[in-house]
Amino acid sequence: MRKDPYILNKDNVLDPPPGLLKKLKFLGPSLILSASIVGSGELIATTTLGAKAGFVTFWVIMVSCLVKVAVQMEMGKHTILSGETAMQAFNKLPGPRIGGARWSVWLVLMIMIIKLLQMGGIVGGVALILNMVLPQVSVSFWAFLVAVVVALMTFKGYYKFIERFSIVLIALFIVFTFLALYFLKYTEYTLIWPDVLSGLTFQLPAAAVAVAIGAFGITGVGADEIIHYNYWCLEKGYATYTGPSEDTPEWTKRARGWIKVMYLDALVAMVIYTVVTAAFYLLGAAVLHAQDRIPEGYEMIESLSMMYTESIGPEAKPIFLLGSFMVLFSTLFAALAAWTRQYSDMFGQLGWIDFFDIKQRLWSISVMAWLLPLLWASFFVFIKLPVMMIISGGIVGSVLLLLVVFATLQFRYRRTLPAFAPSKLYDVILWISVLAIGWVAVYGLFRLMI
Questions:
Q1: Residue 414 in 3-state DSSP?
Q2: pLDDT at site 445
């Protein structure tokens, strides 16, 4: 029986690495998040916003990537200090209980059910790619085949396999995307600085509000990724190495050290996905907006491929299909691994299983590894609108962000141990993050209603 990362004990403590190079060896949780972010957020939602609005909403994407990392780090910090799972922590938030759990757990469950649509759209994207390669096989068949394959890979996938597979898939496509952006300068769609700077003027055209809010909810670290960060920090061992909370100088020093490792993990990933997101957006704004071509329906992948064929040439299409397959599949893979843990955690808080019994937890994860992708595929085959499905997931994700922000403030001001009170600069950055998330979510929902 392998060690259970969800049960803390003194036997597994480990001193944090002392230098930067040694710290780098312990990075990973945020890189898994990057794999789940890139497919739905960067490849589809970001480019769709660029195609619809042009350069003017570039700021939405940049703000989305930069501001949410502070909330993510506060979630990671709470995980290390408490050893609690995400839903265990949410179940301690103030407010009424409904049945066996607090309102916050039930709200997350309801939102995650709606977000099944988002993942169905990604399954659809992979199915459309495969249908373009082998058109004699129906899109519906490909959708269910993809669901079965990702289920097979996930239901027995432990942390190290998930981490390594995710990193390899996204790294290959990132290189290809930067090549496409570079070669734009040899086409009629070449980027000029006035266009790029026009996207940093904080304008939000009414026609682009829905897509902008959806993109804000998905790009960068979304609400579900912030929640999922908890499970990957636990399974990476940050909390295990810190050990159960003790009022001793040794534990305090160890916890501070692992929190620093977690901060580095989050910041390195933020730099990576922010730069990649900017590249995707600029490709969409430069190429697709100029052609008035919005990715939608079964033409989504064909439209997205034009960003690469118009830049590199027609020979880039097979490479794009391979790259987009890898990045969308990595999203499914990384997201399913996290979703199975989150649903099992919710079931535990609702009293349906004992999440901290490793046999029950692994059984639940295995069952959800099959059930969830089959539901995703079924929704896509029934609705057949992958972009709309993904954007709708982003919109409800913005609502979930408000709950995550509320939880984060509770962690910071109600549950942070005095020895770990942060600096004033940290609090300023956290509040900038909180206010930016709240403003975009509330403003966007208001604009949608008028």
A1: helix
A2: 61
Give domain 18-449's CATH number out of 3.40.50.300, 1.20.1740.10, 1.10.10.10, 3.30.70.140. 1.20.1740.10
Residue whose entry in the numeric block shows the structure tokens 């590249």: 279
Q: Say yes or no to pLDDT of 265 above 70.
A: yes
Distances in whole angstroms, Cα of residue 439 to Cα of each of 44, 74, 282, 446? 24, 20, 24, 10
Query: What type of residue is 341?
Result: R
Cβ contacts of residue 156 below 8 Å, gap of 6+? 366
Buried b (16+ CB within 10 A) or exposed e, 209-245: bbbbbbbbbbbbbbbbbbbbbbbbbbbbbbbbbbbeb
- Residue 388 · residue 74 · CB < 8 Å: no
Spatial CA neighbour of 321 closest among 334, 333, 335, 304: 304
Amino acid at 30: S
pLDDT, tens digit, 9 for 90 and up, residues 107-141: 999 999 988 988 998 898 889 889 988 998 999 99
Question: Which structure tokens are listed for 293?
Answer: 């071509």
C-alpha gyration radius of the chain: 21
- Give the domain ranges of the chain: 18-449
Tokens coding 114: 């709606």
User: What DSSP assignment string belongs to 18-69?
Assistant: SSHHHHHTT--HHHHHHHHHIIIIIIIIIHHHHHHHGGGGHHHHHHHHHHTH
